[in-house]
Amino acid sequence: MASFSVNGEHREVDIQASHPLLWVLRERLGLTGTKFGCGIGQCGACTVLVDGAPTRSCQTPVGSVEGSEVTTIEGLAANGLTSVQSAWIEEQVPQCGYCQSGQIVSATALLNARPRPTDEEIDQFMAGNICRCGAYTAIRKAIHRAAELEEDRVSGDEV
Amino acid sequence: MTEPTKEVSPYDHQSLSRGAFIKISVVAGVGLTLGVSWRATQTPDLPFSDAAFVPNAYLRIDTDGSITILVDKAEMGQGVSTALPQMIAEELDVPWADVTFEFASAHDAYGMMVTGGSTAVMESWEPLRQAGATARWMLREAAAQRWGISSELLATRDARVCAPDGSELTYASLASEAAKLQAPNKVDVKKPSEFRLIGQSLPRLDVEAKSTGQAVFGIDAGPPDARVAVIARSPVFGGRLRSFDSSAALAIAGVDEVLEVQSGVAVVAKGYIEANAGRDALVLDWDEGDAALFSDEQLYEALRDGAQASGHTVRDDGQAAQILNESSNAISATFRFPYLAHATMEPMNCTAWVREGRCTVWAPTQFANGPAILGGGARQVAADAAGVSVEDTDLHVTFLGGGFGRRAERDFVQEAAELAGKINGPVKVVWSREDDMRHDFYRPASWHELRATLDADGRPEAWEHRMASQSILQRLVPGWIPRPAARFAGKHDPTSTEGASDQPYAIPHVLMTYKRVDLPIPVGFWRSVGHTHTGFVVESFIDELAHKSDHDPYEYRRALLRKHPRHLGVLEAVAEAADWNSRPPEGRGRGIAVVESFGSYVAQVAEVSVQNGVPRVHKVWCAIDCGTVLNPRIVQAQMESGIAYGITAALYGEINIRDGRAVQGNFTDYQMLRIGQMPEVEVLLVPSGDAPGGVGEPGTPPIAPAIANAIFTLTGQRIRTLPIRL
Questions:
Q1: Is ipTM over 0.95?
Q2: Which run of H or E residues covers position B464?
Q3: In the predicted model, what is the mean pLDDT of chain B?
Q4: Among B175, B224, B438, B502, which one has the highest count of C-beta atoms within 10 angstroms of its own C-beta?
């Protein structure tokens, strides 16, 4: 029995501890926004947050997230679109869109760690997320834009 | 050079559905184009809808004001689910914010539902604008009848019909009355000067769903309780199953069934991980067949021999062979290209369910529907595999997590439908990344031998191009292609020679030959098809001739393209943007290339450095003339995308064959361009105002030669084999 929290909700799944988190999310919990791309942690399509840290869920045994908080793409927008999602829409980032859940989750983690990342920091942090459509220029732009939106949002809250 | 266009009456072929009218044109060097004039407006048999007003298969307007546009092309990132609605919304005069779309399920009302060859916008340009304009005409007519005045006096805007006195009626309120009117045969569409939506960077209709995890791809589609199957396929191409032992697989918790299917042995399980574990536990005995003796050495030997043999003459202007044979200082070069996998981000998959004699399929497909003489679309293939009639087969098209030509194949649909016909309940066939990479229909490997002589001014006098490759069309064509094209297609494959046989440079004597070489590796359409290699060969060799004769490679091209204004337009635009005559920054070189493909003209300049033998592309300038620009931001995105796809192939792309198997299996050994390697890209739109050309593919061909030509300026080395290894 695996017991952990997904997008703020406590979940218990009757499954072996070695089962990859990706397939528990997709097949047992119906959260199909997180994608299968390579199965070996090389493409980043399966990226989720585990206690805030970007994690390749295809390489993560569900037993290792026991008691943790998992956030998927579906959980990011629980209270309306996040700054990253708004920036993604503003910059019209997605093409085929298959990698974008992973890109957005990775970008969210990046901005949590580095609220104002440089291009080099973006390139470094996002290197694990492949976009076969090559929407990288738009991804970079959207991350900078999300940083601005988040700053505005925070200063707005302070006022 | 153009073979006569042959129009095939549907009645020549029993298997072609009634009402279909296929026009097949084979044009040397341009490729095979299929246009089907078989449109919704001509058939009373529309897809089911309970909306109030369904003027044609593309549009539904309901009394609540909802406007739904049916998209009959595959959305694989290239933006059709925005571009196609944009055409209809323009003619219908509705606000963009009111428009929603759905993917059309496979239906004969849409004719051929194939998305490839960058044709979606080109093919839809007339019929979809006509569909929107017809609906607007009917709504206006309904308002005229209600008001009792002439429709000539009425205008339309923002989903309303407006009378001269200022009174207005919404489309929603007119929907039921409009539905009772007879649709006109043909109405006038807007003049370009009247466009309000076409030409605007309207926001994509799929972006919010794709930014929130809500977009449904094939792998997400179908009943949530569908079981998952993985299939063990022959590791050697063309191998056959002798026997298998499934006892260990069936002992694994969650594995339900193991059964033989056409493509191998299917393991049906509760989920993907269980199915994979079951597959790992199978004991399989394959008859590997002759292909097991086939590796890269045999491949390139066969291609080289093919190129040097006397091939089919594709083009012969003047006396190229004679001039070259008599010349003592001909310039020659040999080019070689490997197989390439498509590597869509979403691995192949398909879901199917057969119950009570009906087959339902959820498929991420580029070829949903088509007549049986073309091998059938996915719907026909599914029906045949499941053993039900096509009328009893419903095929729903999902978002595609990349297509690039791979999803025009129907192998993954066949598997799911066959399996669904054999077991109870819905089943989702999922391919691993390794399955996907090792069982692709690859971009064919090819071999090219070039020779040229120069005249006294250094311009090419004679040009000879001898090429060999497998034919993509050969698998698809025999049996249905009409004479005289059959005679032509057996020896020649225009999708292999496109871009070379019709290369535009003014050269008095040109000879091109093509030798089809049959090899045991499956080949297929790969983003920009023949242009992936012919663009490289022509643009590298012309560059070489320019340098050999001490000409600037840009000016040399310009001089030879005087009769090709659209080539010239993009070439001059890109040279100006890149400030071609300026010196590149220290340590960097610039290369240029121009390629016409799929009705569009693209010129690119790449700025490159080489450090420790590794090339790096820093900046790309890209000028495109795609006729009329429908949505500038989408065109720009497609240029960036095509460039990324082309850089990936130029720097990394290679599928090696060893003992009849594809060597590479995942992103560790088949590398993708990552964000840190993506150059800055500046896109210039140079619209000529002609009808729209394609944009999904034309960005890809020029980038590899532009990079190679830039490397030459840095290292003096000519790149004649891809991927680039310095």
A1: yes
A2: strand B460-469
A3: 91
A4: B175
